[in-house]
Write a structure and sequence with these properties.
Radius of gyration: 21 Å
Strand content: 35-45%
Structural class: mainly beta
Largest sheet: 5 strands, antiparallel
Helix content: under 10%
Number of domains: 1
CATH class: Mainly Beta
Length: 482
């Protein structure tokens, strides 16, 4: 076991302060991916099992013993089986980030290499299985059982009856979003006849350019009983590559509208992500409903989503990353995300909740860029809590080569805990839990525990020195237990 020096955080008394424990120093861009891809860590029988995008962009793994508060040795997951995979994309594409789950028989599984760029890309990802049950240190084996033909942004969780649920994008940037369910986490994967969300399904450029070039980015979270999948998504406008469309559609005259709010900024079309939409899926029946409980035809298209599933119109403000999802005491979903403001490059961490039948926005803290992340939950005192990656001023996304620049999607230089004592009407800074000053941070991540739940005391974060090169980012476990 490895014992690394812990860093004391926070501004409360020492008995309640969090500690940040460094455990890796080989990270690339999106060492931990944002909320669309999950989980990076799972808890099982007193240990946390973590995976990340590390050396050469390849999946790494480590475990942390909750009683001893010590890490195991780091494992390079593809060691001795490299020839089984095409590894070229791992060093250049941050979407190849890994996710981990544990099957019913105790074997760990990791999926990585999942990304399709074009609309109809098919990508089955690379999959491995631990050689031994409940053991990540004794090596890994290629695992060839097919979950489905194409997976992007896998979001994996345990559903009712100890089943394993995958929610993911099928295809490239304008692909649909759907799910697969397995009784054991390895075989017999089944899913709905139609995708849940497919904003451009059946669209034709002669009818609607907005529909034809409509995609979405989704986040999902299961209810505590593991039977209802709650989905929050944003609408993305993207022209993409015309040559992937059927020949009769390639010579269309479609042009997406200019963002008038930010006309002086020349916002790229690939960054025009708007609005917030919400759906609930009954996993057993496959019935999809909106927040009013009204059933919706699937796949949910853009016009259907606008008419029946839109809970927040951002009025051309950008909503670049789908939000964190939290449930109140009545099981009603609430959301936390970054919405741009005066500039398309920065905005506000925003809490979105239902109040007297209307969806209401509350600003929490300034966000220096639209890619920063946060987590919404409740602390041990019962107050709403937002964990945020923040920075003063505005930081525009930098870098020009995907996967090779740690600064590509901007950053924050602090991790702050904000709380609300009045269910979200107002927010106040509670404490600073930055692991190490002088670093740039991205993508706070949770540790999955029970069905639909994650730890409220254990979180992951990664950061890097301002002049660091890819492969030099640092990973920390934030341990906030007594």
């Amino acid at each position: 076991m490895v014992s690394l020096p812990a860093i004391l955080l926070g501004c409360a008394d020492s008995e309640s302060d969090a500690v940040a424990i460094p455990f890796a120093s080989d990270g690339h861009l999106k060492m931990f991916y944002d909320i669309r891809m999950h989980p990076s860590a799972i808890e099982h029988e007193g240990n946390i099992y973590i995976t990340w995008r590390g050396n050469e962009g390849l999946p790494q793994a480590i475990s942390y013993n909750l009683e001893d508060r010590k890490f195991s040795n780091q494992v390079s997951v593809y060691e001795s089986i490299e020839e089984s995979f095409e590894l070229g994309g791992y060093i250049t594409d941050q979407h190849y980030n890994p996710a981990i789950w544990r099957a019913k028989d105790g074997y760990f599984h990791i999926i990585a290499g999942c990304h399709g760029l074009l609309s109809f890309d098919v990508n089955g990802c690379d999959k491995v299985k631990s050689r031994l049950p409940n053991d990540i240190a004794s090596g890994w084996l290629p695992w060839s059982d097919e979950i489905t033909s194409s997976i992007n942004y896998p979001n994996i969780t345990t559903a009712y009856n100890d089943q394993t649920l995958f929610y993911f994008r099928d295809g490239g940037h304008l692909g649909s979003w759907t799910y697969r369910l397995s009784p054991n986490g390895e075989t017999d994967w089944t899913g709905p006849d139609h995708s849940v969300v497919d904003l451009n399904a059946g669209a034709h450029p002669d009818v609607s350019c907005l529909d034809f070039y409509a995609g979405s980015y989704n986040n999902s979270r299961l209810s505590q009983d593991g039977r209802t999948l709650h989905i929050a998504f944003v609408w993305q406008q993207e022209v993409g590559s015309l040559d992937v469309w059927p020949e009769e559609l390639q010579d269309n005259n479609c042009a997406l509208p200019i963002n008038e709010r930010y006309a002086d900024f020349h916002v790229p079309q690939g960054r025009t992500r708007y609005n917030l939409y919400y759906l609930a899926v009954d996993i057993e029946s496959g019935i999809v409903t909106n927040h009013l409980g009204n059933p919706l035809e699937t796949p949910v298209t853009r016009s259907n989503a606008d008419n029946n599933a839109k809970i927040l119109d951002t009025n051309e403000r950008l909503f670049s990353v789908p939000p964190s999802i939290h449930f109140d005491e009545d099981g009603q979903p609430q959301f936390l995300g970054v919405i741009s403001d005066e500039s398309p490059n920065s905005g506000w961490f925003t809490h979105i909740r239902l109040v007297n039948g209307e969806w209401y926005e509350s600003k929490i803290a300034h966000a220096s860029n639209v890619w920063n992340s946060g987590i919404l939950d409740k602390n041990s005192d019962g107050n709403l809590r937002a964990l945020l990656v923040v920075n003063d001023g505005e930081i525009e996304a930098q870098g020009t080569t995907v996967g090779t620049d740690l600064n590509r999607y901007a950053w924050g230089d602090r991790i702050e805990e904000w709380i609300s004592r009045d269910e979200g009407d107002s927010w106040e800074l509670n404490r600073d839990i930055t692991p190490q000053t002088g670093l740039r941070y991205q993508n706070l991540r949770t540790v999955s525990t029970e069905i639909g739940e994650y730890s409220k005391e254990l979180f992951l974060i990664y950061g890097w020195e301002p002049n660091a090169m890819p492969g030099q980012a640092l990973a920390f476990l934030l341990d906030d237990r007594p």
